[in-house]
């Protein structure tokens, strides 16, 4: 297969860049990308194998659709802030969080309507459960397409070797498995940012600007940080001031104006939701540290769980690039390529900002998952070059140096690393699916109708396991809550009526103070989801042991506190079963209510 421009620029025997004419073989003084052709590239490199576009897309689609079907909802924020409002837009019922209260209006309905429109059409021929998985499949396909763009751009900018390593590290990555089909702004931003970076590296600046604007205004405003390197390249290095301003304004008009119009209609007043969420998190005292405060080590541990050795390689990338430039003569970069420090700046900026914030969550790193794997692939490439440089001095490789390439001698190194990373990732995915994969199927046992034949009258309640709801799409009837030891704020049902999104409820607040005015008594529930994990209390008794409740179904659920930390994190045959303890999550039916 043909080499990329960057590969050809380093595959001559002296390590210097040479150019040749397409026709007469004369050397040219031009330094543009198309002129980096070499007639004396090693023959073993001329046949380097890497997946083409169609093969890469097929692999990516397979991996992402698998995550859409077998992946579980890992964050209750996905359920209550996105699936539930989406269910309301499609079916007219669902749970509302304080973020969607007209008093605060920090979430946008515009992005949800992009999914609600096709969902409404599909609702004419599909059940809510089928629509749920169809939308996840749609998210998976969009992610696969953006990853294909990223793969091609990496091959173009960093060489096909780095590109193919990125692809094979990316396919089984546990982090990508969890994020690619999630109904979360950080997941949408992951796809948009991945595509934007791909356009940037291919020098397609207008779509790069538009995609960054889309992720900022439609998805997650903080991803504007990832557009800074693109702006630096355009303004400081290329001098494209007019183009930058023009496409920024075009993107602003096309995206922001409809967003403001839709949100203002829903909330009944002028609302700029992207600004509201920034103002809440930055300009209020409680915004950044009210939820999910974690120690400084959180992302280091979480990154290893999701990317294992790739995470370690990614964090080591700056040091390895410096070391490679000092040791290896093959680390030079073609003049038409963006400097490494600028190309990799998005990841550096993102980690520098989010690692220092008190509020840390796994999903906050979703937008840079592709970059994490890219840095891991570049680090592997650096290790190969340095290994070859050392080997030519100490071993007999020196005799072959003039006509062979570093990939020939160091191929086993990258193969072992890719296999190890893939094995650990698959182990992590299996562990998560074994521990929590059955939770979403529990409510499938709910009878969809009452004795009167009304589906909407069925009440499915959650107590201490409130964060395990998989949304109203998977639970016939209505999801409600009963009192538990949890004293924070929980969602409440949307009001009935055409202007339900404009109603200001007195029980919503932005301080995470619990309010039980919307809670039901257990005796009012048709079904109750309860587990036998933990010790029973007055507010959290073991309902499954009471006579008034009939056990309809049960699924296994990991008891993390009683399980081994390593074997619960990664699945190891035999050892995981021996060292992990499982509780039961029950679906209970109220015997005292006839239905």
Automatic annotation (TrEMBL):
This is Mannosyltransferase. Its main location: endoplasmic reticulum. It is found in: Endoplasmic reticulum membrane. It is a multi-pass membrane protein. Its EC number is 2.4.1.-. Belongs to the glycosyltransferase 22 family. It comes from the Eukaryota. InterPro entries: GPI_mannosylTrfase. Pfam families: Glyco_transf_22. The keyword Cell membrane does not apply. GO terms for cellular component: endoplasmic reticulum membrane. It is an enzyme of class 2 (transferase). Pathway: Protein modification; protein glycosylation. One of its GO terms (biological process) is protein N-linked glycosylation. The chain crosses the membrane at residues 112-131, 137-154, 166-188, 208-232, 244-262, 309-328, 340-358, 364-383, 406-426. It comes from Danaus plexippus plexippus. Keywords: Endoplasmic reticulum, Glycosyltransferase, Membrane, Transferase, Transmembrane, Transmembrane helix. GO terms for molecular function: alpha-1,2-mannosyltransferase activity. The keyword Transferase applies.
């Amino acid at each position: 297969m043909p080499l990329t421009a960057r590969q050809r620029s380093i595959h001559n025997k002296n390590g210097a860049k040479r150019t040749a004419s397409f026709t007469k073989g004369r050397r040219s003084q031009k330094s543009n990308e198309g002129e980096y052709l070499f007639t004396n590239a090693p023959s073993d490199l001329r046949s380097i194998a890497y997946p083409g576009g169609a093969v890469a897309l097929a692999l990516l689609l397979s991996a992402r659709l698998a995550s859409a079907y077998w992946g579980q909802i890992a964050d209750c924020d996905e359920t209550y802030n996105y699936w539930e409002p989406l269910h309301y837009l499609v079916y007219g019922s669902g749970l509302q969080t304080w973020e969607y209260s007209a008093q605060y209006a920090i979430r946008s309905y515009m992005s949800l309507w992009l999914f609600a429109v096709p969902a409404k059409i599909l609702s004419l021929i599909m059940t809510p459960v089928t629509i749920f998985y169809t939308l996840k499949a749609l998210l998976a396909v969009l992610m696969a397409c953006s990853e294909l763009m990223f793969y091609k751009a990496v091959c173009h900018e960093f060489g096909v070797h780095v590109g193919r390593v990125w692809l094979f590290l990316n396919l089984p990555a546990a982090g990508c498995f969890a994020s690619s089909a999630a109904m979360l702004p950080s997941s949408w931003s992951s796809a948009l940012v991945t595509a934007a970076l791909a356009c940037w590296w291919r020098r397609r600046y207008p779509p790069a600007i538009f995609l960054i604007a889309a992720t900022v205004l439609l998805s997650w405003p903080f991803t504007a940080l990832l557009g800074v390197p693109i702006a630096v390249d355009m303004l400081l290095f290329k001098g494209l001031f007019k183009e930058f301003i023009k496409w920024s304004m075009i993107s602003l008009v096309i995206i922001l104006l409809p967003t403001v119009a839709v949100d203002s209609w829903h909330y009944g007043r002028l609302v700029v939701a992207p600004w509201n969420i920034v103002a809440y998190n930055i300009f209020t005292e409680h915004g950044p540290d009210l939820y999910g405060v974690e120690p400084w080590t959180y992302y280091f541990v979480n990154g290893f769980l999701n990317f294992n050795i790739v995470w370690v390689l990614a964090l080591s990338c700056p040091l390895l690039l410096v070391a490679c430039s000092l040791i290896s003569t093959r680390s030079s970069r073609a003049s038409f390529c963006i400097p490494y420090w600028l190309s990799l700046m998005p990841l550096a900026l993102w980690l520098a900002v989010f690692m220092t914030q008190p509020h840390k969550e796994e999903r906050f790193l979703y937008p840079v998952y592709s970059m994490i794997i890219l840095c891991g692939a570049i680090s592997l490439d650096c290790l190969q070059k340095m290994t070859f440089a050392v080997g030519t001095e100490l071993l007999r490789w020196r005799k072959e140096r003039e006509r062979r390439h570093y990939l020939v001698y160091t191929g086993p190194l990258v193969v072992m690393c890719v296999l190890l990373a893939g094995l650990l990732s698959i182990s992590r995915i299996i562990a998560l699916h074994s521990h929590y994969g059955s939770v979403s199927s529990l409510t499938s046992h709910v009878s969809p109708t009452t004795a009167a034949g009304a589906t909407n009258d069925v009440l499915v309640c959650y107590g201490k396991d409130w964060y395990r709801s998989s949304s109203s799409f998977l639970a016939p009837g209505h999801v409600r809550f009963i009192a538990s030891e949890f004293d924070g704020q929980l969602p409440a049902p949307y009001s009935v009526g055409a202007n339900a999104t404009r109603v200001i409820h007195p029980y919503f607040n932005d301080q995470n103070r619990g309010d039980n005015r919307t809670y039901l008594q257990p005796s009012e529930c048709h079904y109750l989801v309860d587990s036998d994990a933990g010790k029973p209390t007055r507010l959290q008794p073991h309902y499954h042991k009471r006579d008034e409740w009939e056990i309809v179904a049960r699924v296994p659920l990991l008891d993390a506190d009683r399980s081994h930390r390593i074997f619960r994190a990664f699945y190891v045959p035999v050892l995981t079963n021996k060292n992990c303890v499982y509780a039961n999550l029950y679906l209970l039916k109220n015997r005292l209510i006839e239905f």
